[in-house]
Design goal:
The complex is a heterodimer. Chain A is of the alpha/beta class. Helices cover about 55% and strands about 15% of the residues of chain A. The termini of chain B are far apart. Classes of the chains: A alpha/beta, B alpha/beta. Chains A and B meet through helix 8, strand 7 and strand 11 of A and helix 16, strand 10 and helix 17 of B.
Chain lengths: ~450, ~425
């Protein structure tokens, strides 16, 4: 089947979407935007192609109406096993790289450390969930376990902690920039075996399920996914290995993507890692005007990342904590460089963490409100996209300020919000001839 | 300036400038007074009729920007106590002065014998000359030029400015130079000005054609160079514009587009009107952001800050001082927001533009204030979306190439997208 691909090379993450001729999203891929954009792009694309295969797999298993209810669970089990395979491959690459760089005294410590990591990965594959959750990549997953084991090793005096972490930091870059083969073709065989073992021994089914899966896998494997066209967008788009006419501004892509998810969208706010955009759309999803931050990226997503690091919290913990605030602190500055000092000053002054956080979220949204006003205001419907849209406190502050300034507005946030730019790019790709600005539908 | 498109007019301009800086360097020996003055509303013919040589500090500042010297000069000025928020033209000029006042050709620019403020619409100009007065201990003549809130020059305004010329400026120039005011000499200079102005308008209006043979903003800043500075009212200035006109006519005849620093421009895809001055520190990169996308500027307001000749004004040898007064009153920076919007609207329609870009400059509050309001009003009037970018004149710290490029590319793609039938999107 023919598919169209959109890639959004953002400053924090790289997203890819695989779209069908009918305009359905078949696959979504995401990875961290490492120093090598080409690789980030290839990894996200491969990931999207893989999830597309799993979607086809789900449809193939689903095709048997009698057994449909169990289809999702079966495919999930296989997908989980597949992720386990990918994880194992990357873990081996990491081990090889770490051991190659290690000195003789560290080697036995690392052997033990990686044995423990392998064992943990094997155990994790039995819980029915793919070992990857939103926004967490191999670097984060392997890194947190490695860090814990390295701390233990350092406590016993077997090796120095900084030395072990230094080895990890170098090795993870190598694994990220020269990744092992994570493709569907290379890993599905082992994944089927892994899933078969789980299905045979677990409660999720038996030999019958295994046979159905194997048949479906063969069908999907034989379905070629032909890439008809692809379009790239995002902060790093100039670095994409695409010809110029296959590159679209992220403002246009976010507009079209927001229109895809919510066709009545008129105003879009996108807060990404290092820029904030306020976009106005016409009824067809075409951009009629926009404003974005100037050279200063104060108040963008990276600001929250910095605050999270300062507070020793996960990014996803910020929103829920801020929402516990009863008396938000008034903060005007959204300068990321000053954020740490501001935070420490406020904490030293006895302010509560949740009240400071609520103030910081409000400050970010106030800056976005200024851009929205400059772009022409907030009209119905209003769609919020970008990584910050997943932050509940930012969303709450936005809702309140929009209501205060513009009255009642329908505020949309898609669970697939992070893919908005990539969806827009895929839509542009799907429109066919993308030459010199001409894209016939 | 090394990357300029090379043609006869450009070579001639280079020679003009070299000769000018040589003359300046000899000014002391030849006992010629040196008069510092600003571009908008400048009275160079009057100054020259007394044998004095004008120096234009904003031009020096922008040239320092193009020669990548401005960052150092600004640092020198900041070290001397000027705040980061001060106009960067001012700091660049002060920094250059404190660093030996060496001009672009390597020759030292002499100190002023007179500071002539013939335009007061920019409040910073006054402060700038206050600083220079303090430094050089020389006299200042300040003409008060009434602002044009309604875009109308009244008889009373003219009389008011002419009176200040007669009673304040002319006596001071006579005292400095030891020469009497010679109206016939001034008239002869103004006739040369008018000839050059006629040719400049012809060149700027060539952009009405498709494809436009010129870029009326990036190329335009070179075309206005001589007439906005020391060469209005000179034979060599008038000759330059005749040569330029012939060159542009030839390109027009051959159906050629503008010449960019990277050679002849490709297909003209987008025709734009631009409001606001260019960025000088990344001038070439800035131009490339337009040229690479096939965007040609067909009209700009910045090329009118030293005179709005395309609305019909010409220096008039028949009425020398009143015509100079009218010129002072009529420059673009002296117009109120409604007149500026009217002019931009006229450009968008007359030059058949696809869109317009506003370049807001951090350094210049008096020029940038109200630009977003102008943008909205223009969008409403012409039914086209406007693009908005922000940077600075000569402080490289305020030019974020990726940000400006991102906005421009998005804007251009947005304009191109408008030409297509509405896309069908599956939800």
């Amino acid at each position: 089947m023919k598919v169209w691909i959109g890639i959004d090379l953002g400053s924090t993450t790289t997203k890819a979407v695989v779209m069908t001729a009918a305009g359905e999203i078949l696959g979504r891929g995401i990875t961290n935007s490492r120093s090598n954009y080409d690789v980030a792009c290839a990894v996200a694309r491969e990931d999207a192609m893989t999830t597309a295969r799993f979607e086809l797999l789900r449809q193939a298993v689903d095709a048997d109406p009698e057994r449909a209810p169990r289809a999702a669970a079966l495919v999930r089990a296989l997908h989980h096993a597949f992720r386990g395979e990918q994880y194992a491959r990357q873990l081996e690459a990491l081990a090889t790289s770490c051991l190659a760089a290690a000195g003789a005294p560290e080697r036995p410590v690392l052997e033990d450390l990686f044995a423990a990591l392998r064992a943990a990965a094997g155990a994790a594959s039995g819980d029915g969930e793919a070992p990857r959750s939103g926004g967490e990549f191999f670097r984060d997953l392997a890194g947190s376990s490695y860090l814990r084991l390295a701390e233990e090793a350092a406590r016993t005096g077997a090796a120095r902690f900084d030395r072990l972490m230094g080895l990890f930091d170098r090795a993870i870059l190598k694994v990220e920039n020269e990744p092992p083969d994570l493709s569907f073709a290379a890993n599905i065989g082992a994944a089927v075996e892994r899933a078969t073992a789980a299905l045979t021994h677990g409660e999720t089914g038996g030999a019958d399920d295994v046979e159905r899966l194997a048949t479906a896998v063969r069908t999907v494997f034989d379905t070629p996914l032909e890439e008809a066209d692809s379009v790239g967008t995002g902060y790093g788009r100039a670095r994409l290995p695409f010809p110029k006419e296959r590159i679209r501004s992220e403002i246009l892509c976010h507009g079209l993507g927001a229109h895809y998810f919510f066709p009545r969208t008129t105003t879009v706010l996108d807060i990404g890692g290092q820029d904030t955009k306020a976009i106005q759309l016409d009824a067809a999803g075409l951009v009629t005007g926009f404003q974005m931050n100037d050279r200063c990226a104060a108040g963008c997503g990276r600001y929250l990342g910095y605050i999270a690091d300062e507070m020793n919290l996960g990014l996803h913990e910020l929103g829920p904590l801020a929402r516990q605030s009863r008396r938000p602190v008034r903060i005007a500055s959204t300068c990321t460089v000053f954020a740490g000092a501001e935070l420490r000053d406020r904490l030293a002054a006895g302010e509560r963490r949740e009240d400071i956080l609520a103030g910081l979220h409000r400050a970010i949204i106030l800056r976005a409100m200024s851009l929205l006003a400059r772009s022409g205001g907030v009209h119905d419907e209003f769609t919020f996209t970008g990584g910050v849209a997943r932050n509940s406190a930012a969303l709450e502050a936005l809702q309140r300020l929009v209501a205060e300034n513009y009255g009642a507005r329908t505020l949309n946030v898609s669970p697939d919000s992070i893919y908005t730019g990539a969806v827009g790019a895929a839509l542009f790709a799907r429109r066919g001839a993308v030459e010199s600005g001409a894209c016939a539908a | 300036m090394s990357a300029l498109p090379r043609d006869a007019a450009m070579e001639r301009q280079k020679a003009l400038l070299a000769g000018y800086f040589d003359r300046l360097a000899r000014a002391r020996d030849e006992h010629r007074p040196v008069v510092y003055t600003f571009v908008p509303g400048n009275l160079v013919e009057l100054v020259a009729s007394f044998g004095a040589i004008p120096v234009l500090p904003e031009i020096n500042a922008l040239q320092s920007g193009m020669r990548r010297r401005s960052a150092d000069y600004i640092a020198v000025a900041e070290k001397a106590g000027h705040s980061e928020d001060v106009c960067t033209y001012v700091k660049c000029d002060i920094g250059m002065s404190l660093s030996g006042n060496v001009g672009p050709t390597g020759a030292v620019i002499p100190e002023p014998d007179l500071l002539l403020l013939s335009y007061t619409g920019c409040f910073v100009f006054m402060k700038w000359f206050e600083l220079l007065k303090e430094r050089y201990r020389c006299p200042v003549v300040m003409l008060h030029v009434p602002y044009q809130p309604d875009g109308q020059v009244t008889g009373a305004m003219l009389e008011y400015v002419v009176d200040q010329m007669r009673t304040r400026l002319v006596p001071e120039l006579e005292r400095l130079s030891g020469r009497r005011y010679d109206e016939a000499d001034l008239a002869a200079r103004l006739a040369l000005s008018a000839r050059a102005e006629e040719d400049l308008v012809h060149v700027l209006e060539s952009a009405r054609h498709r494809p436009s043979p010129i870029d009326a903003y990036f190329g335009g800043v070179y075309y206005i160079g001589p007439i906005f500075s020391a060469f209005r009212g000179t034979d060599e200035g008038a000759d330059y514009y005749r040569v330029l006109r012939e060159e542009v006519d030839e390109r027009l005849r051959l159906g050629q587009g503008p010449i960019t620093p990277d050679g002849p421009m490709g297909e003209e895809k987008i025709r734009l009107v631009v409001e606001g001055p260019p960025n000088w520190t990344s001038f070439r990169e800035f131009w490339k952001m337009f040229a690479d996308e096939g965007a040609v500027v067909v009209a700009s307001t910045y090329t009118k800050v030293g005179g709005l000749y395309d609305t019909g004004f010409r220096h008039d040898p028949g009425a020398p001082l009143p015509s100079l007064a009218r010129y002072c009153l009529g420059c673009y920076t002296n117009l109120g927001l409604p007149s500026r919007v009217d002019l931009l609207e006229r450009y968008i329609r007359d030059y058949d533009a696809d869109g317009f870009v506003v370049h807001s400059v951090k350094s210049c509050n008096s020029f940038s204030a109200g630009q977003l309001v102008m943008l909205r009003e223009l969008e409403r009037r012409v039914g086209l979306p406007g693009g908005f970018i922000e940077s600075d004149l000569v402080d490289p710290r305020y030019f974020s190439a990726s940000n400006v490029k991102n906005r421009l590319e998005s804007y251009f793609q947005m304009l191109l997208q408008r030409r297509l039938p509405a896309p069908e999107t599956a939800a």
